[in-house]
Design a protein that fits this description.
The protein has about 150 residues and is α/β, with parallel strands linked by helices. The protein has one domain: NAD(P)-binding Rossmann-like Domain (Rossmann fold, 3-Layer(aba) Sandwich). The protein is about 35% helix and about 15% strand. The chain contains 5 helices and 5 strands. A 5-stranded parallel β-sheet has the order 3-2-1-4-5, with helices on one face. It is globular, with a radius of gyration of 16 Å. About 35% of the residues are buried.
């Protein structure tokens, strides 16, 4: 059975990812914060993986308790705050901590999937031209800039 770690599992997108992974018979580890509402997750076969992504030592300690994950889907993040530094800390630094922890514990998954946002690329040129992969990203918000910075990690 394939094993998947889904960060942000108690969130909107993460919750749907947990449901889908369980329906596909994955062994699911639900990455959540210690203060997350996990009532929904307790009614599933998902195994709670509570680690503070801002604390690399805590992530590494938690990863070392488990065998390697086949897949990691990183959907944890913050979407709303007026604090530019908080966007960076949660969306960029926490992503970096997770990736570095996977490497440093030799728990490199077969696939690492990062859930980003259209805000990372910014708006299109006009309403008639879709954004192209070759377009240079132009985020217009602190949130979009933080998601782009995390993509670049």
């Amino acid at each position: 059975m394939k094993r998947v770690l889904i960060t942000g599992a108690s969130g909107f997108i993460g919750g749907f990812l947990v449901e889908k992974a369980l329906s596909l018979n994955f062994e699911v580890y639900a990455g959540v914060r210690k203060n997350s509402d996990v009532q929904y997750l307790r009614n599933t076969k998902a195994i709670l993986f509570d680690a503070d992504l801002s604390d690399k030592t805590a992530i590494k300690d938690k990863l070392e308790q488990f065998a390697k994950f086949d897949f990691v889907i990183h959907s944890a993040g913050i979407t709303k705050t007026c604090n530019k530094e908080l966007f960076h800390a949660v969306n960029v630094k926490n992503t970096q901590n997770l990736i570095e922890s996977l490497y440093e514990t030799n728990r490199i998954p077969e696939k690492f999937i990062y859930i980003s946002s259209l805000a990372a690329c910014g708006p299109g040129i006009n309403n008639n031209t879709p954004v192209q992969l070759s377009d240079k990203p132009k985020p217009v918000s602190f949130y979009g800039a933080s998601k782009l910075d995390a993509e670049n990690i």
